[in-house]
Design brief:
The chain has 332 residues and is mainly alpha-helical. It is built from 13 helices and 5 strands. Helix 4 packs across helix 7, helix 7 crosses helix 8 and helix 9 packs antiparallel against helix 12. It is globular. The structure holds tryptophan.
């Protein structure tokens, strides 16, 4: 079954835990904003996924609205795209149950993220953490999505989604569109400032690891100054010098200057100079987002009303798929 809209439908799920950082922005959010004409985008803040790890309830609520507000501030426009909170639409959890009953234990047991996460959280290995991919499959299948942007770590979950959908269609009758992975554009892989060997991550601990979208100018400057480089001194794009290369790539993306002209700009200058110039560019680039966020978040009910409206407009699609699945398996 597929939808009738002329644009391809893309479903993105974003967890409201941790803080959204420069790597998320340059690697994903910026492209989402730019693709709003080309695709019918559905952005879902997946708060029900977040509780597979124990959360402070008040903080989870705050983070959920904060993330939605930042996405709006970055330019997600609910006149063109959908943006809502997973728990606003009951059909996610309800469809996950039907899928649960159609996923073999063996398939679910192969999910490597469960193993990683349970190793990291040995005190709270709960059934939801194990079942998490069924809820993710429900998110995607409810909306008959054509594409799902996935990083390496989520590929296996999308494969499981496709498998359960194909099996369901075959065994009970046509119900779900089979989604395809959307491979992210290369070139915007932002690395940790304190450890340029690993990707900038929401969950890394170091206080100078990531620049968050809401960081103040002072904090951005401090983090840039502390960024790990090397003991050489010339400033050139050289992938083998990971720390320097990362800083230059961030500079390149924000300034949109050519590599040649960037190298010329910093010829004969030291790392300190580059770091200050980079801080300046990041501060200026984030300023409009931060200003917009400050405005949006002044009125607590504004973000809520935008999300509610968007959820109300898309709920019929979820209901329709769910009712169909329910009927096909014989639930009344
Ligand atoms: N599992 C994803 C992550 O950890 C988040 C997610 C939940 C998701 N549901 C989704 C991503 C649906 C894409 C589609 O990042």
């Amino acid at each position: 079954m597929s939808h009738t809209s002329s644009k391809k439908r893309v479903f993105s799920g974003i967890q409201p835990t941790g803080n959204i950082h420069l790597g998320n922005y340059l690697g994903a959010v910026r492209h989402w904003v730019d693709s709003q004409e080309q695709y019918e985008n559905i952005f879902c803040v997946v708060n029900s996924h977040a509780i597979t790890i124990r959360q402070n309830p008040q903080e989870l609520q705050n983070k959920t609205y904060e993330l939605a507000g930042i996405l709006l501030a970055c330019g997600i426009d609910t006149k063109k795209s959908h943006l809502f909170i997973q728990s606003q639409i009951d059909e996610h959890a309800a469809l996950a149950w039907i899928l649960d009953c159609n996923i073999p234990m063996g398939d679910m047991s192969r999910m490597t993220q469960f193993k990683d996460k349970s190793n990291k959280n040995p005190k709270n290995i709960n059934v939801g953490l194990f079942n998490y991919p069924a809820l993710m499959a429900a998110d995607i299948l409810l909306y008959q999505a054509d594409f799902v942007p996935v990083g390496e770590d989520q590929k296996q979950h999308l494969e499981l989604t496709r498998d359960v959908a194909m099996r369901f269609n075959r065994d009970y009758g046509e119900c779900f569109n089979i989604p395809e992975p959307m491979i992210p554009q290369v070139g915007a892989r932002v690395m940790g400032l304190d450890n340029p060997q690993s990707k900038m991550s929401k969950s890394a601990q170091g206080e100078n690891h990531a620049i968050f979208l809401l960081d103040s100018p002072d904090v951005i400057t401090r983090k840039c100054k502390k960024a790990v480089t090397d003991s050489q001194s010339n400033i050139v794009f050289d992938e083998s010098r990971a720390g320097l290369y990362n800083l230059l790539c961030i500079y390149e993306i924000f300034t949109q200057k050519s590599r040649k002209s960037i190298e010329a700009e910093f010829e004969g200058k030291g790392y300190g100079h580059l770091k200050m110039a980079l801080a300046e560019v990041i501060i200026e680039s984030l300023r409009p987002i931060q200003q917009s966020y400050a405005k949006i978040s002044q009125d607590k009910t504004y973000i809520q009303s935008v999300l509610t409206k968007s959820a109300d407009s898309i709920r019929p699609i979820a209901k329709n798929t769910y009712e169909n699945a329910k009927r096909l398996v014989g639930l009344v």
